Amino acid sequence: MKIKIHRMMLEEAKITYQETAGLAIISIHRPQSKNALTAKMWTELSEIAGVVLDNPKNKVVLLRGSGQQFTAGSDIKEFHQMSIEEAEASFMLMEKAISAFEKLPIPTIGVINGPAMGAGLELALACDMRVGSEHARMGIPVGRLGIRLSNKFAQRLVHLIGPSRTKELVYTGKILNADESYQLGMLNRVVENEKLDRYAIKLGKLVASQSPASLKAIKQSVSNCVNASEELWKDDIPFVDPYDFPEGVAAFVEKRSPRFKRRIRD
Q: Taking the model in full, what pTM does it have?
């Protein structure tokens, strides 16, 4: 088994990358921060996505988080130290990483062993399939942070659960448990926590045993069926609101309720 580990010194954060039996296994480790990803870690994740195809023996990607977390998404505390422009640039790094996994020509499986929140949910949705344990929680509670969903972010949700459910998740900040996520199609399977990793590897090997030509073709065909016209991206929405975002992030860091002053019609 070939193992390559990317280590990051910030609060013992690291992303590990393993290759074994046709599987590329990527794990996010930052347990003290619920596996939240810094801007540097999003960049690292993009680079790892690029490494996967360097080995022609890799047929399936498994993406997981360590411990009882998938990932809480981006590190909100880091945003508190950034200017509006720096925060927007950080979101673009995030989208680049998520898109890198979404565009991989080989099958990708998200292993949801705990909460997948915000950008963490989007990272999970960028995978072709998702399997989770009873500890899985999925949501995108950005309304308390003044974060705006870009067209690409919204599209991933709309394609999977529909427009009304997507609006409900953002309007209410609702967090779905494993059963609710499964019923909505956000999880393909729910298995017992102690069996999750073993199940994911078994599923990965099953997928890897199929015809590479068939796998590549169905991934491309499905993408062609669901992707909207490129016109959609010409007038995309910035992630960061210059008024609500600083207040939302400050409230998160200070552990208080946000005091938004901007009106919807502004």
A: 0.86
